[in-house]
Specification:
By secondary structure, this protein is mainly alpha-helical. Helix content is 41%, strand content 9%. The protein has a single domain, classed as Glycosyltransferase (Alpha/alpha barrel). The chain binds 2-acetamido-2-deoxy-beta-D-glucopyranose (6 copies). This is Glycosyl hydrolase family 63 C-terminal domain-containing protein.
Length: 556
């Protein structure tokens, strides 16, 4: 009897348990359905960004100073070093050849001397080099060395020289205006061009838009420029301007909408007054599946969509992991500026929520287990479990994660680097030539266009990046010398070259990697910059006000 009763009791409590679990599950589903409705309503109403974070609810620490790595968030208290590491006190001048130092001076000023126009209206227009349009990414990256802290007499170059400050604040204003003109565009021309019907309709080009290949990293570079300016120049008048604040707000709203690219979401509100802004944008049907919409993405994965990579090639899966990492970093930057200068709590809430959602998406979908390398970061994912394992030379890349200052998991990053420098990565190339000897690096599918086939292409930018993320000064010194040997006797950093023949290269005049090269050398020696060795002139100065320069300005 007793036994039986006991059995009954077990059976009944189990049954009761099952009923309870079923009720709980039903409740849980209801809560989820309810929250999703709230979220969707919130997303449609830009003015109502309540505290309801649907994925994670951590807060961003407003007090974090950010010329410092935020890595302690991800890996306990063991902070990761900031890159590039300042090795200037341990490298002696005889370890660098005079050619490296003199090329650093040429590279540092290349953008100002050959691509920069200081306009009459407070703005600055900066082309890429041999392509005569302004890319948001490239232009901000090209002036980046001017914003680095502590490069000469413990100051940044913009602090030392009013003309350089004028160049950068002009670029900030120009970029803000162009983002308002069309936040989906990645490159702009200085004049309005005539368009074909196809360009207007399928490619969305209008006004000053040179190409409308929506790239997540374009806005990231703009915000990184704002943040470095904020850190390296004491007067924040430019940053407080309405146009600048609004450009950031526009980009943030666009990134939020593009989390729901799949649902054809687009941002709305008075800031979105541009031609074509009021509809979700689809791209060249010849380049992207589903008539230009791109492959399917999970709209609740937290990640934000990008149509194109920093190489300007189309994404295979819409969630580009390194660009999403860069987005997390710059949202933290903008939170600091917003809290200190703009004091816009609606924007802060949007940015905090977006940042946390993206972080969730990276952690959940961006790390893939590889049989040979262990857990590694994926290049692109769709939020359904599909992914591409590869890297590309163009930054943001997986190799550049520490340089971007993203709080990475060290084990996963180290595994990823092992993968990147292996033949399992389709863009990895290794070869030999009589100028450099054995050489390896990362290429890009961008160099495989019909009009410029570079076999076994390696991009100097990838070799520079290997140095920028290295904590080994000897290795960095080796790489800067190798870069010069690989430059086909020009000294300039080209776009790509054949590992077995550096004389077969693309783009002889490409200022972005020149600026990166200068940044790498500047982390090794105080001999660059040095006014006695290298000074600049600005290609075109149309502003009626000619500001006094500094020891770096060459006055004819
Ligand atoms: C970092 O990644 C490794 C490998 O996936 C994992 O074992 C470890 O827990 C991660 N560390 C943190 C702090 O998340
Ligand atoms: C991290 O730092 C905090 C504050 O300094 C300290 O309280 C905590 O114990 C540290 N955690 C670890 C894992 O060292
Ligand atoms: C644009 O096309 C029109 C008509 O063909 C022509 O008159 C005009 O000069 C063109 N403008 C430019 C900037 O090419
Ligand atoms: C989409 O992402 C959400 C959030 O991570 C996840 O719960 C859901 O399972 C994903 N959908 C599919 C079909 O994988
Ligand atoms: C640093 O780099 C040099 C040159 O590439 C290499 O020989 C050396 O083994 C590296 N040191 C460490 C600790 O990795
Ligand atoms: C570069 O390599 C391609 C492919 O092998 C070849 O067609 C082209 O002629 C080469 N160009 C030069 C300048 O060597």
């Amino acid at each position: 009897m007793r036994k039986r009763n006991q059995k009954d009791a077990v059976c009944c409590s189990r049954r009761r348990g099952i009923v309870l679990v079923a009720i709980l599950m039903a409740l849980w589903l209801l809560i989820i359905a309810f929250s999703v409705t709230i979220i969707d309503n919130q997303l449609n109403d830009a003015s109502n960004y309540g505290g309801l974070a649907f994925l994670t609810a951590q807060n961003v620490d407003a007090s974090t100073p950010l010329i410092q790595n935020t890595a302690h968030d991800a890996i306990g208290n063991s902070t990761l070093p900031n890159y590039p590491i300042d090795h200037r006190n341990i490298v002696s001048s005889n370890q660098l050849s005079p050619e490296v130092v003199s090329q650093c001076h040429r590279a540092l000023w290349h953008t100002l001397e050959t691509t920069t126009t200081v306009l009459q209206n407070q703005e600055t227009f900066i082309i890429t080099g041999d392509i005569k349009d302004m890319w948001l990414r490239d232009s901000a990256a090209q002036i980046h060395p001017l914003l680095l802290p502590n490069v000469y007499e413990e100051k940044s170059l913009v602090q030392l020289d009013p003309r350089l400050e004028r160049v950068v604040s002009g670029l900030i204003l120009k970029t803000a205006k162009l983002i308002r003109h069309d936040p989906y565009a990645n490159a702009f021309s200085s004049v309005i061009k005539n368009r074909t019907k196809f360009e207007k309709i399928a490619l969305g080009r209008h006004g000053y838009v040179a190409t409308r290949n929506y790239e997540l990293d374009s806005g990231c570079y703009f915000m990184r420029m704002l943040y470095y300016f904020y850190q390296s120049f004491p007067d924040h008048t430019i940053l407080k301007k309405k146009e600048v604040k609004e450009a950031v707000h526009i980009m943030v709203d666009l990134w939020i909408a593009e989390q729901r690219h799949e649902l054809d979401a687009f941002p709305s509100g008075e800031l979105f007054d541009c031609f074509e802004c009021r509809r979700s944008y689809w791209y060249n049907p010849n380049q992207m599946p589903r008539d230009g919409k791109g492959t399917k993405t999970n709209h609740t994965a937290g990640l934000t969509w990008s149509g194109f990579r920093p190489s300007d090639e189309t994404c295979v899966y819409g969630y580009l992991i390194p660009a999403n990492m860069f987005t997390v970093v710059v949202l933290d930057y903008m939170l600091q500026i917003s809290r200190n200068l703009w004091k816009n709590s609606i924007l802060n809430r949007k940015m905090t929520k977006l940042r946390n959602e993206i972080q969730y998406g990276i952690d959940r979908y961006g790390i893939i287990h590889h049989d040979r390398y262990g857990d590694i970061y994926a290049y692109e994912v769709d939020g359904f479990g599909n992914y591409i394992l590869m890297d590309d030379a163009n930054v943001p890349s997986l190799l550049s994660i520490p340089y971007l200052r993203y709080s990475y998991n060290k084990t996963v990053y180290d595994n990823t680097v092992q993968f990147i420098y292996s033949t399992d990565n389709p863009s990895y190339h290794k070869g030999w030539n009589e100028w450099t000897g054995e050489i390896e690096g990362i290429g890009s599918s961008h160099a495989h266009k019909k009009w410029e086939v570079i076999p076994s292409d390696v991009w100097p930018m990838s070799i520079i990046m290997k140095g920028l993320v290295s904590d080994n000064a000897t290795e960095k010194i080796r790489l800067v010398h190798q870069l010069l040997q690989a430059s086909a006797s020009t000294g300039w950093m080209h776009e790509s070259f054949d590992v077995n023949n550096p004389f077969n290269f693309s783009r002889p005049w490409f200022c972005w990697p020149d600026s990166l090269f200068a940044e790498l050398v500047m982390s090794l020696t105080r001999e660059c910059p040095q006014p006695s060795e290298g000074q600049y002139t600005i290609m075109e100065w149309l502003d009626s006000e000619l500001l006094p320069g500094s020891v770096f300005a060459r006055d004819e």
